[in-house]
Amino acid sequence: DSSTITIFPKPPGVIRLGGSVTICCSCQRGDGNFVLYKNGHLLRTLESRSSRAEFSISNATQEDTGDYSCHYLHGDTVLARSEAVNVIVQEFHLPTPVLTVLPGRNVAGGAHVMFRCTIEYSSAVCFLYVEGQVRDLSLLSEERDHFNLSHVHGGNGGHYSCQCRTNSIPFKWSASKTLELVVR
Hints:
By secondary structure, this protein is mostly beta strands. Helix content is about 0%, strand content about 50%. Strands 12, 14, 15, 17, 18 and 19 form a six-stranded mixed beta sheet that branches. Strands 4, 5, 7, 8 and 9 form a five-stranded antiparallel beta sheet that branches. The mean pLDDT is about 90. It comes from Corythaeola cristata.
């Protein structure tokens, strides 16, 4: 369908209290306006003559938590709607996890790559994210602290991060620095 909208949060995953997040929407068409909805309520309109829009939220609070979606309008007609993306804002209480990639950040196409996320905390579960996707790639657990990509290609390049949370509710969170993987 030529009029579907892709939507993703940048950075992906849970957002640090006081941090910022950008909701990125893009549509194959280029002659309308993007409207951002939160929990079904109109939040912002972006006059756009291009096929993408970025809605930024800075100094995030708990109030910014919710389900965001984009509509693409031409005049008053809705041409397309995106799926909803859930944004969660939390204080980061856990130690900062460290994300590493083997054999390195710069690899040749066809290589095998391993992402490892480590955290100085005994009962945490971690999630691996790549920017541009709505969902996490992988749940990393104590049994398995790594995620393998075999036969990488250009499409696997990008900005990766991991986030960890406690096993027990209420969850406590923290996030690694972002790491860029380049596939030659």
